[in-house]
Specification:
Layout: H1 5-12, E1 36-47, E2 69-84, E3 87-102, H2 103-114, E4 122-145, E5 155-180, E6 184-195, E7 209-222, E8 227-256, E9 258-259, E10 265-266, E11 270-282, E12 287-296, E13 299-308, E14 311-322, E15 325-332, E16 337-344, E17 347-353, E18 363-371
Antiparallel strand pairs: 1-2, 1-18, 2-3, 3-4, 4-5, 5-6, 5-7, 6-8, 7-8, 8-11, 8-12, 9-10, 12-13, 13-14, 14-15, 15-16, 16-17, 17-18
Length: 374
């Protein structure tokens, strides 16, 4: 075989991708009698080790992984719907993915892609996990005005979503790969892959069924005339279900002594495994966002903390209100992205990146939305 299967398959799966209630700057709207149709599109990707565009390439330029675990995250979402009297009903599509891989795993896979050998003897620790899913469905939410004040009191929003026809890809690889200067590789690793689109030889023709549900909430609490606290808990409870999901498990224990003329590793492994159709239950994985906003004359100042897939993302922003709209800038310290935003009436646009031009960015985001009222 020509691939280091335990590394290649888990990393070659592109991060095919959290935006839920409260992700629009975690701002809630007090219930009113107006019909408020909306449409929105949010896209975010952030990689620790390389620019976004280089993931499917040979990792030749700007490869700079962190020590330990590196994260590759994507969240994409599009939806439309309507709000009225505190109720929100909409249709949405979500595409989310997360890959966590040890630096050794990335270094080994980079050498494989570039067809090079380590300069010295080295033991590589293989540790990589990929989780990706996509689905479309309907979301229904309800915003409640709390307390005695109908004008400036706290707001609570609860929402639930139902999804159908889910796509799934989950991979888990672990073990060790040893290289010695006489071009010998030693493998002691295992690999688990589930994929709704996978078809293996002699696979039974069984219908696949899938469904999902999710519950989210957001809270907006005025602390004073100028200061407001916001909290969003996305997918705090969720269930995803698949039946007849193709699953592949393999383990390898071998010694390799050569590479072929194209630079690929030749090995005769002690290889064992199992292909099967399984029923699987999973959760989306919750995320959270907390922010404090302060209004000072024409200025809107905000500090925010996001927690996504175990990654903490602190950020700060400032916006200035003018007759031509609200102009804002932001900065977050985890992926070092700088953002520019513009809001005018029902329209909003935000763009974030950690490098310019965007083609060089390892983290970037786009948020576009329109909400009318009549």
């Amino acid at each position: 075989m020509r691939k280091i299967i335990f590394i290649g398959l888990i990393l070659s799966g592109q991060a095919a991708a959290q935006q839920s209630v409260g992700d629009k700057e975690i701002a809630l709207r007090r219930p009113d009698a107006l019909w408020r149709p909306y449409v929105q599109m949010q896209s975010w990707a952030a990689y620790d080790a390389m620019p976004l565009r280089d993931f499917s390439g040979k990792w030749e330029n700007n490869y700079s992984p962190k020590p330990g675990i590196n994260h590759f995250l994507q969240r994409h979402r599009a939806g439309f719907g309507v709000e009225k009297d505190g109720w929100t009903v909409g249709v949405e599509y979500r595409l989310e993915a997360s890959l966590a891989a040890d630096r050794d795993t990335l270094d080994l896979y980079r050498m494989y892609k570039q067809k090079v050998r380590p300069a010295l003897a080295r033991d590589f620790n293989v540790d990589a996990r990929l989780k990706a899913w996509s689905a479309g469905g309907m979301r229904v939410g309800r915003t409640f005005a709390l307390g005695d004040s109908a004008v400036k009191g706290p707001l609570l929003m609860l929402s639930g979503a139902l999804y159908g026809t889910l796509r799934n890809r989950e991979l888990d690889a672990g073990g060790t790969v040893r290289y010695t200067p006489d071009d010998a590789y030693g493998f002691d690793a295992r690999y688990q892959d589930t994929n709704t689109r996978y078809r293996y030889m002699f696979m039974e023709e069984q219908p696949q069924h899938s469904s999902g549900t999710s519950v989210s909430m957001a809270l907006q609490w005025p602390l004073s005339e100028q200061l407001t606290a916001n909290l969003a808990l996305n997918d705090i409870w969720s269930r995803l279900r698949w039946s007849n999901l193709p699953s592949v498990y393999k383990s390898i224990n071998s010694q390799v002594s050569s590479t072929d003329q194209d630079g690929y590793v030749n090995y005769q492994p002690l290889l064992s495994g199992k292909n099967s159709l399984i029923d699987q239950r999973a959760s989306i994985g919750s995320s959270a966002a907390l922010s404090l906003s302060y209004q000072l004359a024409q200025w809107d100042l905000r500090m925010r903390l996001d927690r996504i897939e175990g990654v903490t993302i602190p950020a700060a922003s400032a916006g200035y209100r003018t007759a031509w709209g609200i102009f804002a800038g932001s900065y977050e310290t985890r992926f070092n992205t700088v953002g520019l935003a513009y809001t005018k009436g029902p329209f909003r646009l935000q763009l974030r990146s950690n490098r310019w031009p965007l083609s060089e960015a390892s983290a970037a985001a786009l948020d576009v939305g329109l909400q009318l009222g009549f």
